[in-house]
From TrEMBL:
Residues 303-510 form the DNA-directed DNA polymerase family A palm domain. Keywords: DNA replication, Exonuclease, Hydrolase, Nuclease. The keyword Oxidoreductase does not apply. InterPro entries: DNA-dir_DNA_pol_A_palm_dom, DNA/RNA_pol_sf, DNA_polymerase_A. It comes from the Bacteria. It comes from Blastococcus deserti. PANTHER family: DNA POLYMERASE I, DNA POLYMERASE NU. SMART domains: POLAc. It is an enzyme of class 2 (transferase). This is DNA-directed DNA polymerase. It catalyses: DNA(n) + a 2'-deoxyribonucleoside 5'-triphosphate = DNA(n+1) + diphosphate. Its EC number is 2.7.7.7.
Length: 551
DNA sequence: GAAGGAAGCGCC
DNA sequence: AAAGGGCGCTTCCTTC
């Protein structure tokens, strides 16, 4: 594989050819405006482009109509290697390391505002690349780390392409939906008519003429005065109350939430030219999940999904994995009994069929408890049964929890390490007797320990689930490219990704092939992570005009 | 008036 | 006896 490190030098770019060990074997220098043509010309020769950070290079290439198949995003791979327990840190670190640790992605607006003072320009990508290659060559579990770094970098390409293409969004459909639910758009600072009506009803029922239900403090006092001794004003707390004002209050909360989070202001801010373009942030969560920025992309409510409509003659292919995390747990722990349950399209039904639990609800609440650390009530009662039937799977998460409680680090299947615990509790070994003065009381320390144990318990499963999803996404991205011709947005392409769900925008006549490729990519991801271990990842796949029709 | 925390709620 | 993971966003409310 040819590796070419791209380096910014003022108005020009250096392209430095490297061997697998990161040593430079050749250099070309070109004016920045010739970069897109250079990359386009070299791309067919199976190049891995190496750059400091995908958000600083790839949006410009995409705007110029250039797509690349593979890259190394040094910012992201640095972050993984720095925390991986498979890596000898002394091979990786250098005077520049704090600069790489601190490097942040940019959005296009920032890049336009501050083109001249970028901390990335004070870092040397060639040196960092060489250090990473040396550290990787000496790492334990080299092939797992290789896979993780490749998948992480591919994710960065997919993220940039999704923002570039945008999720098709019909503002007219969205506006009609808002008007039906809330009434016509009010002038700035006024409530929509439907909310005003509900407000009057709430004030009447609670006998507080000036009540502002958007203020939790005010609302709580009003509820108490009405003889409703609630501890908070959350919807699920209020649902259990029997009082004439409550239905209107719950409806007010539901509609008010829609208005605030995804109302007309959201449309004005985030939808342009028929596209919703959030920023996806690969590696933005410590577990390896993506974060997002702008428009709340990771929590687009079901309520407004009817407005996501494929272009004329195009379709969405929407796919999600059923019970990703329990399946991943079965695979990473090598628990054949749980993998057997996972053979079923519904893993929880598979557990019922095996006689492990009485009903689907028990299976679900038990597994969620095992993965999140819920031990109270129903899910706690299920744990002994599950531990007997699935000793390896349950043992793996229990061990991760105990390690976290001891202040130790855990890691995912491919080698992403958990962050070190912070805080005073972590500075002390477990059994030092009673604390001295000015130290945390024992019960406070223990609470922190258990809380961190729940985090590390979940880290190994959530993080390995994120690795499966990244491999799925990376493989799918390349399969989609091969289905069409032209630029990214002219072929079937990804427009949305959320933990265990993808949305592909595709010309209608290719939709069936896209659905096949989505399934093939999922099977390939399973083999990449778990080899021949027999754990299935069945998908729900829908071909639809609107996102809301999926599922 | 800016900044930051808490409450609350949406997604997985 | 108590013990449920990860996010982003908007509003309210306190602090400086």
């Amino acid at each position: 594989m040819n590796r070419v490190v791209l380096v910014r030098r003022g108005a020009s770019v250096e392209a430095r050819e490297c061997g697998d060990d990161g040593r430079v074997v050749g250099t070309a220098r070109l004016p920045a405006e010739e970069l897109a043509g250079f990359v386009r010309a070299r791309e067919p020769g199976r190049v891995r482009w190496v750059w400091d950070d995908t958000t600083r290079w790839y949006p410009g290439l995409l705007d110029a109509g250039v797509r690349v198949e593979r890259c190394t995003d040094l910012r992201l791979t640095h972050a993984v290697l720095r925390r991986s327990p498979f890596v000898d840190q002394s091979l990786l670190t250098d005077d520049e390391t704090p600069g790489w640790d601190a490097l942040q992605p940019v959005s296009a607006t920032e890049a336009a505002l501050f083109p001249l003072d970028d901390p990335a320009d004070r870092l040397d990508p060639v040196g960092e690349h060489r250090r990473q290659r040396v550290a990787l060559a000496a790492a334990e579990e080299r092939s797992r780390l290789d896979l993780l770094l490749a998948a992480e970098s591919s994710g960065a390409l997919a993220a940039a392409e999704m923002t570039h293409a945008g999720l098709p969004w019909r503002a007219d459909v969205h506006e009609r939906l808002l008007t039906e639910l809330l009434g016509p758009r009010p002038t700035a600072g006024r409530r929509p008519a439907v909310l005003e009506g509900l407000l009057a009803e709430i004030r009447r029922a609670l006998r507080v003429p000036e009540l502002n239900p958007d203020s939790p403090g005010e609302l709580l006092r009003a509820l108490h005065a009405a003889g409703l001794p609630v501890p908070d004003t959350r919807s699920w707390t209020l649902e259990r109350l029997d009082h004439p004002g409550i239905p209107a209050l719950l409806e007010y909360k539901r509609l008010s939430r829609l208005l605030q989070a995804n109302g007309w202001n959201w449309l004005d801010t985030w939808v342009r030219d028929g596209r919703f373009r959030p920023w996806f942030l690969p590696g933005g969560v410590v577990t390896g999940r993506w974060a997002s920025s702008g428009g709340g992309a990771l929590s687009v409510p079901v309520q407004v999904r009817p407005a996501a409509v494929a272009d004329q003659g195009w379709r969405f292919v929407v796919a999600d994995v059923a019970q990703l995390e329990p399946r991943v747990l079965a695979g990473m722990s090598g628990d054949t009994a749980m993998a057997e349950a996972a053979r079923s399209a519904d893993l929880y039904e598979g557990m019922v069929a095996a006689g492990a639990v009485a009903g689907r609800a028990d299976a679900k609440v038990g597994m969620l408890g095992a993965m999140y650390g819920g031990t109270r009530g129903e899910s706690g009662r299920m744990m002994p049964r599950l531990a007997r039937r699935y000793p390896r799977a349950i043992g793996l998460v229990e061990e991760a929890a105990r390690a976290g409680e001891r202040g130790e680090l855990v890691h995912t299947l491919l080698g992403r390490g958990s962050p070190p615990p912070a805080g005073e509790w972590a500075a002390r070994p477990v059994d030092l007797g009673e604390p001295a003065d000015e130290e945390l009381p024992r019960e406070v320390r223990d609470r922190h320990r258990r809380s961190w144990g729940r985090f590390t318990r979940n880290f190994v499963v959530q993080g390995t689930g994120a690795e499966w999803a990244l491999c799925w996404l990376a493989d799918l991205r390349n399969r989609l490219w091969r289905l069409g011709s032209g630029t990214v947005a002219e072929r079937p392409h990804l427009v949305f990704f959320l933990h265990d769900e993808v949305v592909v925008h595709t010309p209608g006549h290719l939709a069936a092939e896209v659905a096949d490729e989505v399934r093939h990519a999922a099977a390939a991801a399973g083999r990449l992570l778990f080899g021949s271990f027999p754990v299935d990842f069945p998908l729900d796949v829908s071909v639809v005009r609107s996102w809301a029709e999926a599922g």
